[in-house]
UniProtKB/TrEMBL annotation:
Major localization class: membrane
Domain of life: Bacteria
Membrane topology field: Multi-pass membrane protein
GO CC terms: plasma membrane
Species name: Xanthobacter tagetidis
CDD domains registered for this protein in UniProt: TM_PBP1_LivH_like
Cell compartment(s), UniProt: Cell membrane
Swiss-Prot/TrEMBL keywords: Amino-acid transport, Cell membrane, Membrane, Transmembrane, Transmembrane helix, Transport
Ranges annotated as spanning the membrane: 12-32, 44-77, 84-103, 135-155, 176-205, 211-230, 237-254
Family: Belongs to the binding-protein-dependent transport system permease family. LivHM subfamily.
Taxonomic lineage from the root: Bacteria, Pseudomonadati, Pseudomonadota, Alphaproteobacteria, Hyphomicrobiales
Gene Ontology biological process terms in this record: amino acid transport
A Pfam family it matches: BPD_transp_2
A molecular function (GO) term: transmembrane transporter activity
Entry protein name: Branched-chain amino acid ABC transporter permease
């Protein structure tokens, strides 16, 4: 019974981190209509930068610097890579796939092919639901939840957030109203990239730092976006948490491969029953 409780809590915590990453993927798709195949590798870069910067200046500095570096990286990629090809959806898939390969090989050539571990900045355990549970994992869940809440507050309470919602709703009308659509698109891509890198630095002490880490996280993010409803940000968060908890519970009785298969089965049933996503029609 203890293992079921532990894996369920693990699933909830991992779901909040995945939700943070998937939000970046969802907002980029919702605004730019880009299927960003490199998004998982942005997460991977976040784990790598977290490991390197934390080893030099400490984890808390890395927690601040990594998303800022991710935002700058997103601005550069949007301007040099995405914007010239944004008129062709198929071309953006090819380009982001190539970007994914470049990021993976760059990290492999720099750090080597062997996975690395990052020490947790907060040590110790706490008695929770009858088990001793790692304190850092609880901190990671709390921080991810606060970051998600901050993201939605930004969208609803700031001028730039209002512009993003306006462009997502009707780009032509937003342009007619004088909203700088090109600037909003660049900012949105950079914000989505920053969210992926932030998820990476939070997850680094929990998972392994590996140049292939993005390969595993990307399908989960895509499933969360699809099940939640394409472009539906709140639905994406809910779907990410539900999928991760479900995989955690299934992992208590079967191997991780079967847990991932169960997510694919759920996604298939959702697409058959509700092709526009489980939370289609909910407030975005």
């Amino acid at each position: 019974m203890d293992i079921v409780i532990a894996l369920t809590i693990n699933g909830l915590i991992w779901g909040l981190i995945v939700a943070l990453i998937a939000l970046g993927l969802s907002i980029i798709f919702g605004l730019l209509d880009i299927i960003n195949v490199a998004h998982g590798d942005f997460f991977m870069v976040g784990t790598v930068l977290g490991l390197v910067i934390a080893g030099t200046t400490g984890f808390w500095i890395a927690l601040v610097l990594v998303p800022l570096l991710g935002f700058c990286l997103g601005l550069v990629i949007e301007r040099l890579v995405i914007r010239p090809a944004i008129s062709s959806a198929s071309l953006t898939i090819v380009i982001t796939f190539g970007l994914s390969m470049i990021l993976q090989e760059a990290v492999r050539a720099t750090l080597g092919p062997q996975p690395r571990r990052m020490a947790a900045p907060v040590e110790g355990t706490i008695h929770l639901f009858g088990i001793d549970y790692d304190v850092y994992r609880l901190f990671a869940a709390l921080f991810a939840a606060l970051a998600i809440a901050g993201f939605f507050l930004f969208l609803s309470r700031t001028t730039l957030g209002t512009w993003i919602r306006a462009v997502r709703h009707d780009r032509e009308t937003a342009t007619a109203l004088g909203i700088p659509v090109t600037l909003v698109c660049a900012f949105t891509f950079a914000l989505g990239t920053a969210l992926a890198l932030l998820g990476g630095v939070i997850a680094a002490p929990i998972t392994t730092v590996d140049f292939r880490a993005g390969i595993d996280i990307l399908p989960v993010c895509f499933m969360a976006v699809v099940i939640g409803g394409l472009g539906n940000l709140k639905g994406t968060v809910a779907a990410a948490v539900l999928l991760a908890v479900m995989e955690g519970v299934v992992s208590a009785f079967a191997d991780p491969t079967m847990a991932r298969i169960s997510s694919l089965v759920v996604m298939s049933f959702v697409l058959l029953a509700r092709p526009h996503g489980l939370f289609a029609g909910a407030t975005r």
